[in-house]
Amino acid sequence: MARRRRRGRPGRVRGGGAARMAAPGCPARPPPPRPVAATALGGDKVLPGDPSAGAQDRAAALRGGTRLHLLLEHLPGTAREGWPARAAALLAGTEDGVPTRAELAALLDDLAAIVEAEALGDVFAPPPGAQVLREVPLTAPLPGGGRLTGVIDRLIVTDQGVTAIDYKSNAVVPADAGGTPSGYLRQMAAYRHALRAIWPGRRIDTAILWTAARELMALPDALLDEAWDAALRDLDPERGRS
User: What is the mean pLDDT of residues 59-75?
Assistant: First the structure.
């Protein structure tokens, strides 16, 4: 009696992994493009003369900026007397760990100066009815395919519009919005692009909070339009030839 031949399960290969199969004559579907981060759209991130331009100084500046960002996310609106303990607990869970006592004191002094700055009142004490969102993840389709991803430091939503605010800890701050490093303009233009998809028809404003200057700098749409076009050309060089 002939043995009955066992048929393997379709779409399976030895080892338990699923096989990608295409119909005869049809090419295999290419993998989806990798998401593009809003912070990875090219362009400069510092101005000439910034002491953080060097590799070591840059690492120290990034560490200090990351720590301050974390405190800005969690401590405004909480009791000041609880800041030291809360800050130490928050920073203990980061890659760089708890700063020295002097470093922590300097961070808390910077935080207090930012939160209490009169020019930043609308950021940390927005009008009644405003919704404040912190560390807001977002994603949106890119023109021509692919997806954009990002995280907005602070989002203020009102009936009149939406304002996206990003914290930047550069030591050298531009005199006006036109002097903003191109990489930051591209990043903020990407946020605007995503927010317009989320809130169609709503006014979308963007601004950078320069922590060293305790200044909120609004970014005009014309600047962001130019930066966004440049970012898209870098992603798809063919776009600039059409």
Answer: 90
